[in-house]
Design goal:
The protein is of the alpha+beta class. The protein contains three helices and ten strands; from the N terminus they run ααβββαβββββββ. About 15% of the residues lie in helices and about 45% in strands. It binds calcium ion (CA) (2 copies). Keywords: Signal.
Amino acid sequence: MVTGSSLKRGLLKVLGIAMAPIAALVLVGAQPASAATVAAQACTGQVQQNVCVTITSLGFGFYEVRLGIDFRIGLAGAQQIINAPGEPFSGALFGADSSPEFLLGVPVTSVGASEESGLSADFVTTVPRLWLDEDLNDRDEVFGKIRLLDSRFNVMRTFDTPQIQQFF
Ligand SMILES: [Ca+2]
Ligand SMILES: [Ca+2]
């Protein structure tokens, strides 16, 4: 298995994902609502891990939901997890209520290992607006949940993104 940041960038390029820093996405979100693309993003931004959810309006009542994680465990640890059999990651979007409500699965599109970012993964799906409208006639609070089977210790880890609050 070839790993490393160059492969990761290659994968991202193939998938058409720009390696744009978070600031660039925030700028997109700051544009007027009339702009063709409006993205909302929320990230944990922690030292040990950065977990993000980005929701972009595609127009015609459809949204792209994107999750991303950098689990900074170094290259060797990340490679160990990637080399283990099976897909280590799964992703989903939840609605925040008195108890979290499962809204939709967000499939893994790429997994990579690098010294700087550790174990990284991206998840992307496209859904109709209604799937994000978790509180009818009210503001919606949604967040991403990423599960990782950490085969180094045989433990299941769960990472939650912060909430995006918006009227869908
Ligand atoms: Ca809610
Ligand atoms: Ca709503």
